Amino acid sequence: MKPYDTSRRDFLKNSSMGFGMLAASSLFQKDLTAGLLSPLAPKAPHFAPKAKSVIFLYMDGGVSQVDSFDPKPQLAKENGQQPKFKVDATVFNNNGGLLKSPWEFKRYGESGIPVSDLFPHIGSCADDLCVIRSMTALSPNHPNANYAMHCGHVLAGRPSMGSWFSYGLGNFNQNLPSYVVVNGGLMPPGGMQTFGNGFLPANHQPSIVVPRHPVMNNIDPREPVSELQRKKLDYLNSIDTEFFKKYHHADEVETAIENYELAYRMQMEVPEVTDISKETEATKRLYGMDSPFEKTRQYGSQCLIARRLVEQGVRFVELTVSGIGGADRWDQHGNLKAGHEKNAFAVDQPIAGLIKDLKARGLLDSTLLVFTGEFGRTPFAQGTNGRDHNPQGFSMWMAGGGVKGGTVYGATDEYGYRAVENIMDVHDLHANMMHLMGIDHKELTYRFSGRDVRLTDVHGHIIPDILA
Amino acid sequence: MNKIFLLLSTLLLAILGGLLGWAVFFTEGLLAVGDALNWTQFLGRFHPAVLHLPIGLFFGLFVLEIVALRQRSDASARSALVLVWLMAVTSVLTAYLGLLLASGGDYSGDTLWWHKCLGIIFAAAALVVTFFKVFSLCYAGKGLTLYRMLMIGLLVLLTFVGHNGGELTHGKGYLTNYAPKWLQDILDEPEPEESDVEETDSAGTEGNVFTHQVQPILEQYCVSCHGPEKQKSKYRVDTFEFLLTPGSIGDTTIEPYRMSESSLLEYLFLPESDDMAMPPEGKPRPSAEEIMIIAHWIANGAEGPPIDEAAMAAAKAVAEAEQAQVVRLFDAGILLLPVGKDSDLLYLDFQNVGEDLPEEALATLSFYKDRIYEIKLIGSDHAAKLLRLLEGASELRVLNVSGLQNADDLAEVLNSFSALELLNLFGSDLSGAGFSKLTLSNLQKLYVGSTQVSPEELQVYQKTNVSIQVFGDVDLSSIEALKAIDLENSAEFNPKENK
Fold first, then answer.
1. A121 and B426: CB-CB below 8 Å?
2. Which of A123, A234, B297, B400 stands 20 to 30 A from A51 (CA)?
3. Which of A10, A14, A22 to mutate to probe the B interface, most B CBs <10 Å?
4. pLDDT in tens, B185-210
5. Which residues of B touch A405 (CB under 8 A)?
6. Cβ(B129)–Cβ(B157) under 8 Å?
């Protein structure tokens, strides 16, 4: 669906006003949305976007690529042998021989993308997936890699991409925040700064909700009469506004005033949007809400909340995983089989349900799904049955939102250790996510510390091969 | 014998005519074949070479026929038969190659349109002429007068089509540029518009470097290939705005203050022998002094032509009025946004609208009706009202009316959005009857999950509308099989619950 029938060139040619007018028009604000001053009001993208919202499925801890989306038969052949290739120092440096995947791979869909038995449900959506097998991380440590994956920088304090999207595009829904993290229970190493708004105005910070009642602290008003609450808020606003004028219009104060107002409006909307009890039984089953495994039910409700938020026009929703009993998220330094199985079992059906549900509701085309960890895992063992961190090459996938479904992009070497073909880094990922959302990653900047800072710093390439 | 020869000839001509007609009326088909073989541009560029064949053949034919006329010689008339056939075949071939070349987008404008039309007419006429030639030979001179008149017609046609083609290649006025003044006055089309602009401009542009020094140089050396007629490599340099518009490689032609970033200078500075040097080898090149004028202009900020104050004020007033309307709509809960900063098309979102819908807002929306590209109306009480208001919106491509009430009654309104590509009726009260009424020729995706449409009705509709992807409810049964694998995987840590 091509959004322009008249190109800029034709427009210039046919413009009856002629040239003086065009030269003039660059001297004043042409943007139709120029009058919308509220910080979360929607803004016109740089160009017509494919996707309007992002759901970021964060696989905290690092999924093993050779056990999920990057089959390596060579590992089975050389199972237990010392690696013949050069091994860089790993975090624990307790490296054993090569370790074959405990799971079989099957080809799925018309595209025949191989997916391991860890993810049979996600496999059934293979034709919607664009699997990237050549992703690399900027750091082998959790906090730094988390920061990099979210903020494009290994150090804390930079704005995360959700904040950038909010800053660049605003929100369709004025009663909901533009950036929501649906927290599964664990906070990724690196803490809140992983999601932080950094130096961007605080309107663009994430709102954290949990998949149970109450979804947010103080979301239920204390006052029984909303009129009373309104009066209190108005009084508070008048004091804050005075303060704001007195102290040189400090952005922070303005932001705080606006955040109070947003919170007031959220009291109505948030409980309604996060109330998944209204969903039909069929939909709940689709998301695995009837699963015997509690964590599957929980992640299912997270996915349902994400869909409901996106439906209401929220720009960026991130889902984080929960602590899986006896195994810590995806970070299996030992007991790979048991740990990865539990983690996969918790997210597999809910994520596939989300894809299928979005598709049936006509929302998959406008919603970009991104599934990734902060890095991958080594193809050789840590100890005897675990895998250490591997930032040199790992797999992730994107779906919906203008992504070319049913494709595999990039490759690692024959052991799945290093990315060797079409190598991608987090900046490339961010640049392409922004591109799909209608943002030119080189144009969206914020002046901080004397520089016009971008999410992608001075990096980032648009990759036509992964775009539909 | 004569009859068989005539029959075979007619058949062959009909085939050639059919091939020509196919290429003209189904150019997409031709291009699809060309693109599939990756030959469109490669072959297209042979057009300027091959076109000389029919011209030469026509010339030979013409002379031969005159000789035949004077000598009343049968031999000459017979040998002309070979030439006329060759001319017919090469004319059609030339038309084919021309269509391929034109698709590349380097050429546009009125001249191309005329060249294309006349070229096709010439090829068709060549076939007709061939027929009459054969006919007259078979029936001892019958139809000869008609044939000769057609030959004169071809000559006239060839003059025009050739002239247009020449202008496309060398730029307008190439032929008459150095003609005596009196001849120029007769030949050149009057161009009142341009001279008007120049006269009114001259007062305001005094001392403007771009208008008086840079633009004349560009016009002399560059505009014939990078102007309104032709945009080689998608670059245009005929106006200041186009100089700031990126070309095919994505770089802008000039970057104010930065000579090293201005690709225009890069091309001008290259030695003539370089493949990328502009103007290309063989074309007149600007002098060193002229290049330095452009370089100096860029280094000093590349100031554009003076601005028309009145036009600016008018445009600013329009923009501000539109912005104010968008703010008023926003306050009423209606989002009306450009789909992108580079587009005039609009996105309309009703999800923040409460129970009240101000009449004023509706009036505003009907004003923007034919710029609306996408609408999101999920579960809105005002959906029916709004759809009726916007009935017939010509640019509407994406319509999300999930949860629409009385959908069956609105089928006719939905059908009025003729450009619609995506229609989302998920969760609406659409029934099988309303569903079967939906006929949208450009539709690509249709969502009818959670409606009263039964799976059988969906299948029937899908069979009759093959080009539309119809989405119903998710098939839950397929998930059960997958669950079995999941449960097997989880047996180790989840044994009790599985049994």
1. no
2. A123
3. A22
4. 776 655 544 444 444 444 456 678 88
5. none
6. no
